[in-house]
Write a structure and sequence with these properties.
Blueprint (H helix, E strand, L loop, with lengths): L12 H16 L9 H8 L3 H13 L3 E4 L3 E4 L4 E4 L18 E9 L2 H7 L6 E11 L2 E10 L9 H5 L4 H11 L6 E10 L2 H7 L6 E11 L2 E11 L4 E4 L5 E5 L1
Antiparallel strand pairs: 1-2, 3-11, 4-5, 5-6, 6-9, 7-8, 8-9, 10-11
Helix pairs in contact: 1-3, 2-3
C-alpha cells in the first residue's frame, strides 16, 4: 500500500479515507490477511490515528474488516446466505423443527428492564432465560436469550423446575411454550455494541458493532415471550422478505 496524502475534500476525512482503504482492500490484500498496524497506516495516509480508527470502524461495520483478539485487523471473507428463521416459516415458536439455533442453557433471573416492560412483568420478577447460539461454517455468528415469563409456561413440570440450570431445562421450557397457540410476532432490528458476555461468545472485542434483533411472540392476547438475538455485524447482513421473515447473510 503506497503513501497517499489526503487532500481537502468536502466529505469527512475519515469517510474519504474509508473509500481509499476499501479500494486498497480490493486490489492489494487477500481474505484473512492482516493489515499493518495503526501507526503505519496513519503515517502512510498522513492522517491522525483517530481519523484512521473511524475509517477502520466503518469498514468493520460494512463487513470489509474483522478485528480479532490476539490477531489484529484482517480482511473479512465474503458473506454467504443463511436464513434467520426456521424452515417451518416465520410464524413458529423458537425450537420448532427447522430451527437452526442450538439450545445451550437456562437460568431463572429478572429480565432487562426494556424486556420486562414488553413482557408486562415486574422488573424484579424472575423469568425463564433460555440461552441459544447460532453457528455457521464452524463459527458462532449469533447469540440469543429468549425470555419467557412463568405465566406463559404454567404446566412446566415441578421436577424440571427443581433441576439445575442446563440445556435439558431450557428445552423443557421451549416444549411447554409450544403448547400455546402463536398469534403472531413482531421484530425490530437495531445497530448496537457488543457487551462483554456477547463479545466473548461471538469472539469479538467488547464494543464491536453488532446487530440486535428483538422478537416479540404474541399469544393469548399478550406477549408470551421475547427474544433478544445479537449478530456479528462484521459478517451479517439482514434483509426482509414479503413474508416478514428476516434473512441473515453471514460468513
Amino acid at each position: 500500500m503506497g503513501t497517499t496524502q489526503l487532500e481537502t475534500v468536502p466529505e469527512p476525512k475519515y469517510w474519504h479515507l474509508k473509500t481509499v482503504l476499501s479500494d486498497a482492500l480490493d486490489s492489494e490484500f487477500a481474505v484473512g490477511e492482516i493489515l499493518p498496524n495503526e501507526r503505519e497506516l496513519a503515517a502512510r495516509f498522513g492522517v491522525a490515528r483517530a481519523t484512521l480508527r473511524q475509517a477502520l470502524e466503518q469498514l468493520e461495520l460494512e463487513g470489509r474488516l474483522q478485528r480479532r483478539r490476539g490477531v489484529g485487523t484482517t480482511v473479512a471473507p465474503p458473506r454467504v446466505g443463511v436464513d434467520v428463521g426456521s424452515e417451518a416459516g416465520p410464524h413458529t415458536w423458537p425450537g420448532a423443527p427447522g430451527d437452526a439455533w442450538h439450545t445451550e442453557e437456562h437460568e431463572a433471573a429478572p429480565a432487562p428492564a426494556p424486556v420486562a416492560r414488553m413482557l408486562g412483568v415486574a422488573g424484579d420478577a424472575a423469568v425463564h432465560a433460555v440461552r441459544r447460539s447460532r453457528t455457521t461454517g464452524g463459527q458462532q455468528v449469533a447469540s440469543e436469550v429468549l425470555y419467557v415469563p412463568t405465566a406463559s409456561v404454567p404446566g412446566l413440570a415441578a421436577d424440571v423446575e427443581e433441576e439445575p440450570s442446563g440445556a435439558a431445562r431450557a428445552r423443557a421450557v421451549l416444549r411447554e411454550l409450544h403448547r400455546l397457540q402463536l398469534a403472531g410476532q413482531d421484530r425490530t432490528v437495531e445497530l448496537g455494541s457488543a457487551r462483554a458476555d456477547d463479545a466473548r461468545r461471538l469472539d469479538r472485542l467488547p464494543g464491536a458493532p453488532v446487530l440486535v434483533v428483538t422478537t416479540r411472540y404474541l399469544a393469548d392476547g399478550g406477549t408470551a415471550a421475547v427474544s433478544v438475538a445479537t449478530y456479528r455485524a462484521d459478517t451479517c447482513r439482514l434483509s426482509f422478505s414479503d413474508t416478514d421473515a428476516v434473512a441473515l447473510l453471514a460468513s
